[in-house]
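@channel sequence for tomorrow's demo:
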Amino acid sequence: MKILFLIIAGGGLVHEADELAQRETWALEDKQFCQIIWLRSHARQEFKFEDRTLFVPGDSSFDAILEKTILGARWVTENIDFDYLVRSNTSTYFEVDSILKNFSKIQDNEVGGTFETNRKNLSGFAKGYRYLNGSGLYMNRNTAIALSSLDSLEYRASPDDIAIFDFMSSRGFSFFKVRRNNLDLHHIFIPRSQIRVKSWSNPALTVARMTLVHRYFQCKGFFPKLFCWFEVERNEIRNSSIGVREFFNLMDRTLKILLKK
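structure tokens (generated this afternoon):
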């Protein structure tokens, strides 16, 4: 079994810093069962693969992420040997040694990820529309081939993850939930295989979270791991507006989860 991580990259200095943090932590090197490729756009009308980075024709704007994904999926299915694909971004941490369980039962007509609800009306999609968040889309090779046939012009005004979900839904695909931990939303670290470390208000915090979470997964033994866990939480306290009482209530619930693992 081989997993390919296709990471949407580029788009400014903040994303460059996030990518560097990935390259220095969980994505430091490829393993026998997984390969990481960062996906970028360039002005040339050709595909170029170097330094674990795939350049596809196009611009690097947010609106071009869907087309970049389609072209990237098309190229890797034609040129890279893999069984499963994870499409993600530079502000997500993956614990690759435990991620295999997310693919244990995946079928040709299934896509995995974290469900979210649209918070406002968008072109063709009303408020409340439920879809899979684009920070982690899990699929097998045949599904990646299907994704590469998507026509981005049909979703010109739609976010990429909503467009992908709608396209897969229209073709009869089913969806399954992959649990992730969102540090910026909850400020409580639960060591899952996928960790959302993005900070919209403090870009430098994304890199700090990536580093501290990696340190936790590198620790061996209960007490060293517990110390690393508290380091992550101390960083959250310093950089969030969460109240003390709320924090300790959440921490109590989280410790119970950790002790069960």
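heads up for whoever presents: The longest strand covers residues 34-42.
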